From TrEMBL:
The keyword Ion transport applies. One of its GO terms (molecular function) is potassium channel activity. It is a multi-pass membrane protein. It comes from Halotia branconii CENA392. The keyword Transmembrane helix applies. It catalyses: K(+)(in) = K(+)(out). This is TMEM175 family protein. GO terms for cellular component: membrane.
Length: 190
């Protein structure tokens, strides 16, 4: 099967997820800067989630550039990833509306953890399909970022019950680590 439909569907889902997230931000009733103060946590959670979704979209795009074709396993692995990404608006809103309280921050991390695991699974299924000597397998290599990210999330989830802001710092560190797509894929394709 060609990969075009998978790419188009994934792009559409991520675009809808981002749209849902921004629509969840409620407009203040008053027309002054003080009216914005209560929505600062909501806005901050939105920014963090927008960055994460952008990272997934960007890296997903790069991942599929090294792929020639897909099969049913790949389609299901991709849907698995999209499922977890589709939960981001809910946990983002809950976290922001509750001023980064422990339980919402922990659930946010849980969704990020399962999205990271799903992305790792997608990568492995793609490599299995294209072979260990494929461009993708060569580009991914040992996949340090793909293996360390779930560890950060696994530490951040229980940490949120001690200090939710430290958990958020770990989430931000993962985002910083992934902000720049892996240049090995671009190098191997060109």
């Amino acid at each position: 099967m060609v990969k075009g439909r998978l790419e188009a569907f994934s792009d559409g889902v991520i675009a809808i997820v981002i749209t849902i997230m921004v629509l969840e931000m409620k407009v203040p009733d008053e027309a002054n800067l003080a009216a914005l103060r209560p929505i600062i946590p909501v806005f901050l959670s939105y920014v963090l989630s927008f960055i994460f979704l952008g990272i997934y979209w960007n890296n997903h795009h790069h991942l599929l550039q090294a792929v020639r074709h897909v099969n049913g396993r790949i389609l299901w692995a991709n849907l698995h990833l999209l499922f977890w990404l589709s939960l981001i608006p809910f946990v983002t809103g809950w976290m922001g509306e509750n001023n980064f309280s422990a339980m919402p921050v922990a659930l946010y991390g849980t969704v990020l953890l399962f999205a990271a695991i799903a992305y790792f699974i997608l990568t492995r299924v793609l490599i299995d399909h294209h072979g260990k000597d494929s461009i993708l397998a060569t580009a991914i290599g040992r996949d340090f970022k793909g293996k360390i990210s779930p560890v950060f999330y696994a530490v951040a989830i229980p940490l949120s019950f001690v200090n939710s802001w430290l958990s958020c710092v770990l989430y931000i560190l993962v985002a910083i680590m992934w902000l720049i797509p892996d240049p090995r894929i671009e190098r191997n394709i060109t």
